[in-house]
Amino acid sequence: MNAKPASATVTPIIDDVQGRPDTRRIPIDRVGIKDIYHPVRVKDRAGGEQHTIANFNMYVHLPHNFKGTHMSRFVEILNEHEREISVESFNAMLTQMTERLDSGAGHLEMTFPYFIMKQAPVTGVQSLLDYKATLAGELKDGQVQTWLKVVVPVTSLCPCSKQISDYGAHNQRSHVTISVRISEHVWLEELIDVAEQEASCELYGILKRPDEKYVTERAYDNPKFVEDIVRDVAMRLNTDDRIRSYVIESENFESIHNHSAYARVERDKDLPAAN
């Protein structure tokens, strides 16, 4: 008895809904995925390499005649870069993303914790301090612009409180946030150094009693408003030709108020100076 021939498997054609044309004639500036985590490797100024986890946002420009983008391709690009992504491969991944999704413009950013081993000012005891860092890239018209951002925790002490008080002055933990567009490589540590040096005092993970005395007195001898901090940081960045534009923010988590004090200054060196 002859066996029946095996029937061929027919793969059904699945409609590519995203690829359909759209008639509303409205382009979309950014479309993609956000808030996805992936391992990364980041080199530090000391010559080492930190293995950390970054939160990614990945977007492309969508022309007016495309109904949608292919969301799965963003994740595919992340996974194609082995298990870890390095800062060095960042711009290449940005270019790959725009090409894979047939777009003329794209935006890629990753935010990650960055650690520095710090030494207490008197006893020399060592401890890690963490900073929130972001690397962002924008590709448009064939040109890539790169941004670095870091949030630096510091101490600030109020000059007015020191002036009017017979005993001490109110001080608090503050965040100095520096965002810079760069034309050449800039270490995260360089931006962190500027923020810490222009605050009333820097922070440490571990302080012994001699260290605590030092940082308390250091802040008292170096009082600053939020306005002072952003201006002093801006003065430093104005002299660095690698930094083409910047946004500097200072937020004091006021110890005697239920609100924060805040200041911001920004500049694009490639535009005419404003008065």
Count of strand segments = 10
C-alpha end-to-end distance: 97 Å
Structural class: alpha+beta
Mean pLDDT, to the nearest integer, reads 92
**Beta-strand proportion:** 35-45%
Spell the H/E element sequence: EEHEHEEEHEHEHHEE
Instruction: State the share of residues found in helices, binned by percent.
Output: 10-25%
Structure in words:
By secondary structure, the protein is of the alpha+beta class. The chain folds into two domains: 21-112, Roll (Urate Oxidase); 120-275, Roll (Urate Oxidase), CATH 3.10.270.10. The chain has six helices and ten strands. The protein has helices spanning 71-80, 90-100, 159-164, 188-197, 209-220, 226-238; strands at 28-43, 49-62, 85-86, 105-119, 126-140, 143-157, 171-182, 201-202, 243-253, 260-268. Strands 1, 2, 3, 4, 5, 6, 7, 8, 9 and 10 form a ten-stranded mixed sheet that branches. A hairpin with a 2-residue loop joins β5 (126-140) and β6 (143-157). The longest helix has 13 residues, at 226-238. The protein is elongated, with a radius of gyration of 25 Å. The protein starts with 27 loop residues before the first strand and ends in a 7-residue tail after the last strand. The model has no long low-confidence stretch (mean pLDDT 92).
Produce the secondary structure layout.
Blueprint (H helix, E strand, L loop, with lengths): L27 E16 L5 E14 L8 H10 L4 E2 L3 H11 L4 E15 L6 E15 L2 E15 L1 H6 L6 E12 L5 H10 L3 E2 L6 H12 L5 H13 L4 E11 L6 E9 L7
Helix pairs in contact: 1-2
